[in-house]
Write a structure and sequence with these properties.
Number of helices of chain B: 15
Strand order of the largest sheet of chain A: 2-1-3-4-5-11
Strand order of the largest sheet of chain B: 1-4
Oligomer: heterodimer
Radius of gyration of chain B: 20 Å
Strand content of chain B: under 5%
Number of helices of chain A: 10
Number of strands of chain A: 12
Helix content of chain B: over 70%
Order of helices and strands of chain B: HHHHHHEHHEEHHHHEHHH
Amino acid sequence: MTYLKYAGATALAGLMATGAVAQDDVKVIGVSIPAATHGWAGGMNFHAQEAVDRLEEVYPQLDFVLATASDPGKQVSDIEDMVATRNIDALVVLPFESEPLTSPVQAVADSGVWVTVVDRGLSVEGIEDLYVAGDNTGFGRVSGEYMVEAMPDGGQIVALRGIPTTIDNERVAGFEAAIEGSGIEIIDMEHGNWNRDDSFTVMQDFLSKHDNIDAVWASDDDMAVGVLAAIEAAGREDVQFVLGGAGMKEMIARVAEGDTMIPADVTYPPSMIATAIELTAVGLTSSAPVSGQFVIGSVLVTQENAEDYYFPDSPF
Amino acid sequence: MAVADTTTTTRARPKVDLRVLGPILALVALLVTGALLNSNFLGAANVTNVLSRSAFIGIIAVGMTFVITSGGLDLSVGSMAAFIAGLMILVMNGLLPTMGPGWPLIVVGMGAALVAGLAAGFVNGFLITNMRIEAFIVTLGTMGIYRSLVTWLADGGTLSLDFGLRGIYRPVYYDGILGVSWPIIVFALVAIAGEVVMRMTAFGRHCAAIGSNDTVARYSSVNVNRVRIMTYILLGMLVGVATIMYVPRLGSASASTGVLWELEAIAAVIIGGTMLKGGFGRVWGTVIGVLILSLIDNILNLTDGVSPYLNGAIQGVIIILAVILQREGKAEG
């Protein structure tokens, strides 16, 4: 009985405490991200949701609003709604596209809201308080360096590119710079649009066109799936390996198993959204400074460290 | 195609010749260009690749020919294919523990795809005919619905068929009889059946009659609603057939499956000489339209010198040229 009373009293006190916090200074963090329209974005959505759930437990004084947008216009509306109806104190945004989101996000920043930008930068510098960025040039460079290491005598490779965007251009530029002078020659390059079906088709045509291909830089794990299917169907033995990228769990699993066709992967972690939300929460709740730039490097995953990059629950 | 050779124009006006020859000329021009640019172009491997990958759009486009001929339109087929592929994978993975891996399970999966296609087609047709909503609006709506549903089913990621099952199912895309792969055989059978139905049956003639004037068709005691609904059901089932051929290829479905297939199918139908406003359709033309679209992509991949950024532009130019070749002599008001 005494115990029960005690428990009841504590619970009541707890309730009052939370109630007091709720009235005084609950801060609201708005999170605006693109909808899960492809594998990487699906993973990003998963990690955003997970981070929000976890942080709501950790910080009772924080409230989160998560919105996913299927196009830049919808994302602008989402952000306007957050400011107008939820009175957000901080905004974490992964812009669908840089240009259309720049001035709406600037307006939010001008009204005194903390702004964290993730992955894709805005087209005007200095708007955001915190920029959590993926390193696309680095992604290309790490991929290129692996190719050079794996093919010390050089060789002929084909490359698949993503959807024509700045992201894709930076990756390819980084890759080309890294393999320069190594004797590795890119004999063909086409857009597979980060899509399994498109890359399957492109790879089939590459195999018809070239009698000898030593390796493939698929530059993305979804594209690597299509490339592998095309190679298998053609029964070609000349292709030694395929290098994907981004860190899809199925591909990481194959790296861990020591699959010779998929000897390595290069990360471009969709969980960077979690880093951004976490840092923003820290910034709002403590005196630790978090403004500035936080660049998430691309890491080479090989059989040795594959365990650390395997997330079985993530959809990606 | 064999069908093309046996067909002569039914309206024997001298001016109509180009309308018949237009798509064939475009196809021949592409074949010659391809052969000149790359020696592997006419190799058995490349021909098989191009024909097999044309099969998905091709099978769907045959159904689309009937819908467009009867004055309708279906924008939902790409999303529908993605949704049915996702559903089929879920059904097969779900029944795997009870049925065990093997052909019976795959047949159940195929059945599920056909039933889902039939149901999806019926929903489109019912809303368009019985609820009297514009086909464009109905299928724009269902397009969004199916695309969201597959994203939701896949949790934003990718649905993958169980690895063991994939091994059993894989031959449906990659193997065949006498070196002709199954997708090509199925595509050819669907195309021939479509041509026969369009030309020789009451259903085919009713489609054309409704497309040119549905009031007159109604007065001529054609059951307009029933024929229209049948065209959408037929298309839905063919989307199911296309999905049955698609799933064994990569064994997966995601939100990016079948994106823009609807526009490719519609473009193929129009390049083939079917009128977008309805009233006249030809299935063999659609087959040629599909091949033209696939060949453009194939040739661009096999050649250097054209920036890949321009692929879409070249495709656009060739589509417009193919249609210009077969326009009617005088401009229409």
